[in-house]
Amino acid sequence: MSILQLLKKGLAGDHPSRETETIRKISESLDLLEPEKAKYVAAFAYLLCRVARADLNISLLESRMMERIVVEIGGLPEDQAVLVVQIAKTQNRIFGGTENFLVAREFGALASHEQKLALVHCLYSVAAADELISTLEDNEISQIADELRIEHGDFIKVRSAYRDSLAVLKRPQEI
Known about the structure:
This protein has 175 residues and is mainly α. Helices cover 68% and strands 0% of the residues. The chain has a single domain (20-166), classed as TerB-like. It starts with a helix and ends in a 15-residue tail after the last helix. Mean pLDDT is 84; it is low at 1-18.
């Protein structure tokens, strides 16, 4: 259970932080990975689910996209990625309101600037899985970018790559 010990140490320097139930549950399913990698994948998967669930519905297309991304980013076999995404979806549904900021903070402490930008790309990919990024999903991605302290200009560069899927930029008859 080295992952639990690592989480208990906290990420806030000398001030111990309470481990999030979300990261603990997901990372337990990743016991074979190195502890830091397991925490990274757990937080990454949770944040993907946070965006997919922004409109209170995670579509099959969004689930499949999250699974593909977790396979690619986490280097996991497909069956393990499916499990990680399912746990992340459940944790998000149960603890979303209280865990969202905490998980984003943990991810921010683990990730480099490039990894944070890659996450934002992945968040938009999940939101665009059904070819329409709702305003709720777009706002949630913006909130996560703020929580990760991504500069606005960098965020806009990533967002502009998905402009054709943004509901806010479509005419009503296109939606």
